Amino acid sequence: MYAHASLEHPGGAYQILALGIDVVTAPLLAAAYAATVLRLACGGRHADRLIALLAPAGRMTLTNYLTQSLVLALLFTGYGAALVGHVPPSAVLAIALLLFMAQAVTSRWWLRRYGYGPLEWLLRSWATLTRPPLRRSEAAPRRPGPAGPARDGDRS
Q1: pTM higher than 0.70 for the full model?
Q2: CA 35 – CA 94 distance, rounded (Å)
């Protein structure tokens, strides 16, 4: 509705009303997206495959979000190619999907070598005021937790 109002009636009362509706309904739309992903991940034949596909990108959300922002800003604003208004909506959707697919592949590649995404590592370093290991080989080996193998004295 807001996109229609912005294109067809910019600067009018209809655009302001559409903006208000957009702002109020945005959390509901985000919840619907989250519920859809959870529904797909928790059931069905392809749940494990979907989780394996999306998990690396999910572990690098800050890096991926800022990369998307930079790439799309360079494509659509005057600082870059200034394509806003020149690309049909179907092409914008294709660009977004291609960018996310590239990020999913890159995230998987990155996390095979490193424990965190680059910006996630910087954020963790700043938040903890330490220098956590970035490479997987630098990380200490994990100890089994409660779901791990039974230890002596744990048997009943």
Answers
A1: no
A2: 23
The number of beta carbons lying within 10 Å of the beta carbon of residue 107 is 21
What are the CA-CA distances from residue 23 to residues 60, 86, 136 (Å)?
27, 26, 41
Decide: 111 and 59 in contact? Cβ < 8 Å.
yes
pLDDT band at 42 (very low <50, low <70, confident <90, very high): confident
pLDDT band at 141 (very low <50, low <70, confident <90, very high): low
Q: How many CB atoms lie within 10 A of CB 116?
A: 22
Q: How many CA atoms lie within 13 A of 124 on its CB side?
A: 15
CB 113 within 8 A of CB 138: no
Q: Report how far residue 143's alpha carbon sits from residue 151's, in angstroms, rounded to the nearest whole number.
A: 12
